[in-house]
Give the backbone structure.
Amino acid sequence: MSTPRGIRNNNPGNIRWGSDWKGLKKDGKQQDPSFCVFETPEYGIRALAKLLRNYQRLYGLNTPRKIISRYAPPTENETVSYIDSVSWQLNITPDTPVDLSEDGILMVFIKAVIRHENGVQPYSNETLLKGIRMS
């Protein structure tokens, strides 16, 4: 079984090009035409944490439905199943408010996104917390 693209790219949230993220592989090493490639998984997790927290802080998105609808729009994803998957893993309804400023809640949310994006969630809690705290 091959390693999922997001895991190979150290970008478990499959973040597309568009921002100059900290920890991107240097020139010549960005071999994916669509998605960022990070130096380490922690930098990819950091970017995902910043993105999700910014959705909440800057745009007031505070439920799995609102956050995932922006993160994984229906033009590119099966957004309803994504929302249901994340909500189920958080053990809440899609419209239950979440506070992503809390590292523990954000970690569960990120684990759910990684699992949905890649089919697996291979990172230890230590790796996830390091990426979150880097954000």
The chain has a mean pLDDT of 94. DSSP finds six helices and no strands in the chain. The chain has one domain: 5-134.
